Amino acid sequence: MTCMVVLAVLFGSQLVGQWSPAEGSWTLQPHRCASLTGPSTASVHRDGLTLPASTLKYFPQAGRCMTGWMARYTQLQADVQSGRLPPRYLLSVSVEAGLADRLTGLITHLWHAVLTNRALVTVNYGVLPPFEAMCRSPFIEWSRRPENVSDEAVEPLKYTYKGQRGYPSDKRFLPANLDAHTFQMLYLINGPEEKLKVYQRGNISTAVSTDPAYLLAAANRGRTWALATNPFYKQVFWDFGVPPQDAFMCGFFFMCSPVAAIEQYYQKYWDALQEHGVLKIGIQIRVGDAVFQGAKTEQQPAEAIKIGAEWFDCAQQLEKAYAAPGQKVLWYLNADSKQLRKAAKLVYGDKLITDDELQMSHPDCHQNRAGGSTTCQQTAMDEALQHSLGAMLTFSLTDYHVITGQSGFGRLGAWLSGRWDNIYQVDRGAGGCSPGQPVRFEQSAYHYAGV
Q1: Helix (H/G/I), strand (E/B), else coil: 376
Q2: What is the dihedral of CA 300, 303, 307, 309, to 10 degrees?
Q3: Which contiguous run of DSSP H or E holds residue 185?
Q4: Please, are residues 213 and 88 in contact by the beta-carbon 8 Å criterion?
Q5: What is the pLDDT of residues 430-439, one digit of tens each?
Q6: pTM for this structure?
Q7: DSSP string covering 373-412, please?
Q8: Integer Cα distance of 286 and 171 in angstroms
Q9: CA–CA distance, 235 with 282 (Å, rounded to integer)
């Protein structure tokens, strides 16, 4: 079908159009609309791929992501890793941060890799909990680092640059002994905003000066919405059958099926939120990192409940606006503060679902070690990452999401839900919310760390 406008979609440095499964490559079609997928109807089993049963049971919205692109990218990944295709990788270097910052960067890297014909691999270092501590890979082997990518190549991308935590400079220098035509770096920690704009309106292949075999990238900023609405790639996402609001969700469920430990611990919450005919409202309250260091740093329950007053007020307004007469309503509370969760359970009783026993830890808890404390071991960090993902996925199971504005945790959980007009942002001291004014997707997509 001839286009009204000729689209030049760039993958790497070449114009491409139709995918050829037999050859494992994109065929040049500069004068026709790219047809990168078959029919856009979603299914839970497509082209030999099937989503895990637990994903389909609890997160059926993931099924609409299976529109053909997953199988084709899975094949490309396998061809690169097996040597059937030349090495062409995007290596996503872990960020010393919480789950939300790490995920938003990783899923943006996934789409960057998909759009530029690169296999995606995650690179971990030091004591950071690896993604495989919380995720099984349904389709691709994303944790197998290429042998010829040395620690020296990864070093400039570490957030603790040469031992200095939070190193602020965006200047990263490729080690002198590495060929710039083989290795390049893309460092997007905390921006800078100007470099992020290429995801919104530019050709991302120009983000680095060459077209290297190995692109090493680090980011705690998300631009999945930006890529799906970028004029260079909008046609591709149309053909993928992935609308902008689903790009993060589809990327996540392509990359991750929660490990058994998460499923076993959180199943009771997931089952409770599966009840049909119930209006479910999620509340996410971020108090601050101090609560991760134990209850002694927190207020007592009578005071703790006051911390969430604006969030609870917003939930009550949503309940009043959207609950049908006689309809059962459940709230799910995710909060970093154990004292707040316990206090809320005392106040709201059976209406409120929350884990009022777990003392949450930061997945990057080694940053909070004091006086050489060794209480934050690798196992504890892995478990913290698991609980973070388990809580985020539980939050996604609700119909409406009342989130903390300056926290990406609730935002990502809301985007994983596959719902729309569902996000209400509360900032401390700014009042509650208006049921008729949910946060628009494009506003949420660019807020703070983004999506």
Answers
A1: coil
A2: 130
A3: strand 183-188
A4: yes
A5: 777 999 999 9
A6: 0.86
A7: -----HHHHHHHHHHHHHHHHHHHTSSEEEEETT-HHHHH
A8: 32
A9: 34
